Amino acid sequence: MSGNMVFLLVFGRRVESEFGVINFLAFYMTTGVTACLGHAIVESESTKPLIGASGAISGVLGAFLIANPRARITLVLDPTLIFFLHRLTVRIPAWIFLLGWFLLQLGLALRPRASNVAFWAHVGGFAGGVISAIAIYPYFSKQAP
Fold first, then answer.
1. Do the Cβ atoms of 65 and 43 come closer than 8 Å?
2. Which of 94, 111, 120, 145 is most buried, with most CB under 10 Å away?
3. Cα→Cα distances 112→47, 78, 79, 108, 132, Å
4. At what angle do helices 119-136 and 94-110 cross, to 10 degrees?
C-alpha cells in the first residue's frame, strides 16, 4: 500500500464520517483542484504532467487538523528504522504530527528542484483543506464516529 493510501485510510475515514460521503467527495475533489492550482501558480514554467492524488489527500489532512486537532496519532517505528529496539510506539497529538508534516512539505517545496514530487501541490492542497474545513466544518455534526 502506498503512503498516499495509508494517509487516506487513517485520516480520510474520520473526515468522511464527519462530512458524509457526498460532502466528502465534493471536498476531496475541491482540494484536489486547489492543489493543482497551487502547483500551477508556483511552478508555472513546468511542462511535466501533474499526476496523482497526493494534493487532494493533503487537503484531507488539513481538514483533519481542523476537525480533530486533539486526536492522538500512534506512530509505530519499525525495527528497520531503529535497529536497537524491537519496536517503538509513540502517541502524539494530531496537530503536532500534521503541522510537522506540512512544514516538511513546505521545506521540501522551497528546495531547488531535487525531486519529481509536486510538493507545492501538497502545500496548496493542505492549505485549501484547512481553509475549506474552517468554512464548512461548523455545518457538520461534531459527533465522533
1. no
2. 120
3. 16, 31, 32, 8, 30
4. 140
Grid cell of 25 as nine digits: 467527495
For residue 83, what pLDDT is reported? 59
- Report, as ranges of residue numbers, the positions in the chain whose pLDDT lies below 50: 1, 143-145
Rounded to whole angstroms, the Cα distance separating 30 from 91 reads: 31
Residue type, 40: A
DSSP 53-65: SHHHHHHHHHHHH
Helices (H), the chain: 3-7, 13-19, 21-42, 54-67, 94-110, 119-136
